[in-house]
């Protein structure tokens, strides 16, 4: 089998890249390790930047997003038991973010890909990539017990943090930067109306961080910071709701509607960047190249901006016959990646309880939050990063 671009991974990065390339008439095949149902069952991101919404609209999956996504004009910060709104819309000249689950984005992109008759090989095992330092790269995999080889012009490594693509690059050719945080996020999904349907709420409290988000007007997504050693079985639903309430202001705590969790999990927090993002004819995009802690809601949005740059580069290559885009991809993508890394790290540092920072650390965080909500300049800096820096 042969294609122009072999895409490894059918997460948001791989599916969106496939859609952008197809729209430009560039042939592509996606190879995914998991089944389609497994990919759809992962509960992850929920907040889309306007640039991501625009890209999804451009590839023809904007309809349900427009009808069912919830625009957020502001975010709210809770500290010292008081809630303060930051008018993101007003401070950015009219920009908003949209609450629409990653599961829905994946569902829409999978549906459009299937309707267009494009090939995605799900449940492929033993995926390996070869010869990306030559003009004839190849992907090998096993499907239903049969060995396959896919020849291509380029390989797009969209296979997430634990994928095979970054791991296939010789160690001497790649530099990795990493920070692992000493806590996790315990997340609960529940079919109850969100306590704050028009703004994501971020809470700083001496007991730890909390977050109130949503997937729809009848489905809520909440998180509390927890020790990284905690096991999800230790947390009953009741213990989760009690802890969330303790970390919010009294009015919001009173208003929370609780119910049985339909998903409960603990996610570790990490900042990570691998440089460069191109190795001959292999290009990394999304979580395969970088991870942000979820505090700034940037992971999925960065995956989208990477594949926008990458699809532009391939279009230049195939349509305009120039390699300038491909040659500049890594540098272009990394400039935006590092700014999002900085923002996600700073918001994580500002809002979480660190084991060794003590009362002094808490007071400094509260002073910074107080400055943030009372200075127009500081609020504007937060707002423009939150809605997404320009592509
Ligand atoms: P994905 O989604 O991990 O997809 C990679 C795909 O590659 C497959 N794969 C392989 N396929 C073939 N061969 C192999 N050897 C393979 N190895 C892996 C995997 O099965 C998978 O299908 O990466 P992608 O596409 O780069 O997308 C990145 C996003 O998923 C991620 O950044 C976000 O979910 C991060 N994130 C958030 N991002 C936001 O923009 N806004 C948010 O509000 C937000 N909240 C979150 C988040 C991530 C979280 N967790 C659990 C990490 C909240 C949480 C709790
Ligand atoms: C989510 O809805 O899952 C979510 C929202 C905002 C964040 C992180 C996660 O910063």
Largest sheet: 8 strands, mixed
Strand content: 25-35%
Which small molecules are bound?
A: 8-demethyl-8-dimethylamino-flavin-adenine-dinucleotide, P-hydroxybenzoic acid
Report mean pLDDT, rounded to a whole number.
Answer: 97
Shape: globular
List keywords for this structure.
391 residues, alpha+beta, FAD/NAD(P)-binding domain, D-Amino Acid Oxidase, Chain A, domain 2, 2 domains, 8-stranded mixed sheet, 6-stranded mixed sheet, 12 helices, 20 strands, 28% strand, binds 8-demethyl-8-dimethylamino-flavin-adenine-dinucleotide, binds P-hydroxybenzoic acid
Compact summary:
The protein is of the alpha+beta class.
What does this structure look like?
The protein is globular, with a radius of gyration of 21 Å. It has 391 residues and is an alpha+beta fold. Helix 9 (299-320) packs antiparallel against helix 10. The longest helix has 28 residues, at 324-351. It is 37% helix and 28% strand. Strands 6-5-14-15-16-13-17-20 form an 8-stranded mixed beta sheet, sandwiched between helices. Strand 9 (125-130) and strand 10 (138-143) form a beta hairpin. It binds 8-demethyl-8-dimethylamino-flavin-adenine-dinucleotide (RFL) and P-hydroxybenzoic acid (PHB). P-hydroxybenzoic acid (PHB) is lined by residues 45-47, 200, 211, 213, 221, 294-297.
